[in-house]
Design brief:
Blueprint: E1 2-10, H1 16-28, E2 36-42, E3 46-54, E4 77-82
Antiparallel strand pairs: 1-3, 1-4, 2-3
């Protein structure tokens, strides 16, 4: 089974580039290497990290931590999904 973890944060005012680099470094330093990972950004200095794992849904998987309070404008959002394969089939 493939599990996707999503981690999303919004930077504090003026700290978007810093949050992006923080997330990039943490994703590169996970205790285990995921099957795939991707780093994305969106307006309002939001940063999203997606990681895919060959694991059971409830397995203990390495996740990005919560950044220091001054780097983010609200708590981190986290989601976990089970992959069902391509949308078209």
């Amino acid at each position: 089974m493939t599990v996707a973890l999503m981690w999303e944060a919004r930077a504090a005012e003026g700290r978007g580039a810093e949050l992006l680099e923080w997330a990039r470094a943490r994703a590169a330093g996970l205790a285990l290497e995921p099957l795939r990972s991707e780093l994305l950004r969106a307006p309002q200095d939001r940063v999203l990290v997606l990681t895919w794992w060959e694991a059971a849904y409830d397995d203990d998987l390495p996740e990005l931590p919560e950044p220091e309070a001054g780097l983010i404008s609200r708590p981190v959002h986290r989601w976990r999904f089970e992959s069902l394969g391509p949308a078209g089939g």
